[in-house]
């Protein structure tokens, strides 16, 4: 399931593997989307955890 609608461009996309969720904030440009997706891919510090952030 993809959940869109988060409004802050400061957030990066987030995946909760155990819940099958992909959180994708709205971005104003395709360039900003690409930048944030690449940042999320390279920042996988939470991999292996099944805890959504609060």
UniProtKB/TrEMBL annotation:
InterPro entries in the record: HECT_dom, Hect_E3_ubiquitin_ligase
Domain HECT, first and last residues per copy: 1-50
GO MF annotation, one: ubiquitin-protein transferase activity
Active site: 18
Lyase listed as a keyword: no
Protein's recorded name: HECT domain-containing protein
Pfam families: HECT (PF00632)
Coiled-coil residues: none
Keyword Secreted: no
């Amino acid at each position: 399931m993809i959940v869109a609608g988060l409004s802050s461009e400061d957030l990066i996309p987030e995946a909760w593997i155990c819940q099958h969720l992909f959180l994708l904030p709205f971005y104003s440009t395709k360039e900003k989307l690409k930048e944030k997706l690449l940042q999320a891919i390279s920042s996988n510090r939470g991999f292996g955890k099944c805890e959504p952030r609060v």
